[in-house]
Amino acid sequence: MAWQMQPQMQQMPQMQAMQQPMQQMHNQQMQHQQNQQHQQHQQMQQQQQRQQMQQQQQRPQMQHQQHQQHQQHQQMQHQQMQQPQMQHQQMQASKGMGQAGKGSKGKDGKGMRPPAHQVRPQSLALSPSASAPSAQGIMVSGCANETVSNIIKGSFSVAGSNHGKHIYKKDTSDPNVTVLIYYWDDRDGSSFSGWWIGPKVGGDQVWSHADNRSSPTPPPAGWHVPWDGPVDPSLTLTYTPATASAAPPPALPAPAPQPGKAAGKAAGKGQVVGVRPVMKPHDLQMERKKPETIGPGGPQNNRIEELRRKSAEAEEAQRKRQEEMKRNREEDLQRRKEMTAATNVRKVLAKVRAARADSYDALRAQLEESIATNLEAMGSIASKVGQEAEEVLQAAQTRIDDLNEQRAQEDRERAEQEKQRKHEAENSVKFVEEAKSDAQTQLKKVQEAEELCKKLEDEADPTKLLERTEAAEKEVASVLGEANEVKAAIHEKQRRMLTDGNSKIRRELSEVMGKLGAALRSLNAVLHGLKSRREKVARKAAAVEKMNEKKSVFAQFDLDKDGKLSKKEVEAYMKATINFDLPPAILDPIVQKLDPITYAKFRSLHQRLYIAKSELLAREALGI
């Protein structure tokens, strides 16, 4: 075991360096989970506080509303008791008017109905705006949607308040349509907050919505039509001053119908643009501000029952939410306890993952003790943590065994490498001698190839020069290829040598390999020069050959061998070459112009004959 323990001690820093990032990653994950749980717990506490505050705000309002309804009911009973006396007084007043009243019977013998102002019951619910005649009014104009524009445009006056801000009601509108501008705060969420235009405060039917929550009054612009659509820049609100003599604004409308019923009736002939999400019971505080028809068995009693029912439903929903929050807090507390206990065990697991062979047993005992201490607190995740512990222990044992085997393998490899190093060191001397000999041989061949290229300058005949240049180019290319192969082979053998011997070999071969490299670069330049020279010689030989061909043609038609062509010789050349007879009027000027027609003018003669032929054929085609 001694030979195994010593390598283990040497590689422990590497093992720790490998395990530290894993442990840090695990700790970061645990910290992230704890932060998430803490944030969820804070959110639940904040939600519970908001709900408690809302409930506390609703209770005084409900009590005040019930008190007002009780007073209204008493006033209604008092008025009903006074109605017979008022009717008796009215009948006495009509008798005192003389016989004209008796003669006003119709065919059916009944009397005329008294004036409406004498028998009409007075409303007990006054508009809140009546007490504030100096408040500003609003003029709504514009709107790209023609249907919505016809409903909402017009003048508005203050008709109450909701959530601490004024409610505005349209002064003149269709009797079947009520148009309100009201504010709703963020108690039901930010999506419900802002200024709304609709037939009912907090209703689910709306025409427009403005996101400006900070404005104390309806904003002049920024209204969405429909409420969840884009902003309509043409829809604007203008504030107008109101006078004390102005008539009180109409009372608030009746509640809008519930979703799924005839909701279109409240909006007027089905012209509501958007459907607003259903509000929560917070809008109960507005019910006390709406005018009611007072009478026994009338809508007032039904409304009281409806308010009581909604209040009971709200309290029941609040109770359920509180129970749910309590259950969530208990579950969250239990989860936190379990996670804390599991974290304690996992900290020891992180140490076991990085255990060395000499510390493995002690860390395993520490892990077992930690599991026993935190077993009950881990609760439902105890089995999962236990499985993790088994996997970590097994992985640690396997890792230690693998490290021992790896160290043994490394020892064997080092012995083999040492043996190989000695063998290569013995062969390095032989390699250096062979490499020097091969390099010297290639240097000699390169010098011979360069001498061969220098002898090409003595040749004057283009044809022979081309042949010798091509042969020299092949020879130089062969020598250059062989020398490059030898150089590459020497470098490859040198690369395979061991590091210690390689530097020594490089020093011994540096001089001869440097000379060989310089010679190869020089020979490569010679090869490029040969290629350029061969191409140049080839072009020159081709030009000479073409010129000889033209001279041969000239000599063929120069029958008298005087070095120039006569008119008859030109006519013979014309018939043989262009296969055409030019009239003397055209041919004679050409001959006279070029006379004497030597070989130097032979090309010009050929061109003029072809041009004259083309012009003559063109004139004949045109009928000239």
UniProtKB/TrEMBL annotation:
PROSITE patterns: EF_HAND_1, EF_HAND_2
Keyword Calcium: yes
Domain (EF-hand): residue spans on this chain: 545-580
CC terms in the record's Gene Ontology section: endoplasmic reticulum; ER to Golgi transport vesicle membrane; Golgi stack
Region: Disordered, residue numbers: 1-135, 237-273, 288-336, 405-427
Domain of life where this protein originates: Eukaryota
Swiss-Prot/TrEMBL keywords: Calcium
Molecular functions (GO terms): calcium ion binding
Biological process per Gene Ontology, one example term: intracellular protein transport
Biased composition (Basic and acidic residues): 303-336
Residue ranges, compositional bias (Low complexity): 1-93, 123-135, 259-270
Comp. bias (Pro residues): 247-258
Presence of the UniProt keyword Calcium in the record: yes
PANTHER family xref list: GENERAL VESICULAR TRANSPORT FACTOR P115 (PTHR10013:SF0)
UniProt-recorded name of the protein: Structural maintenance of chromosomes protein 3
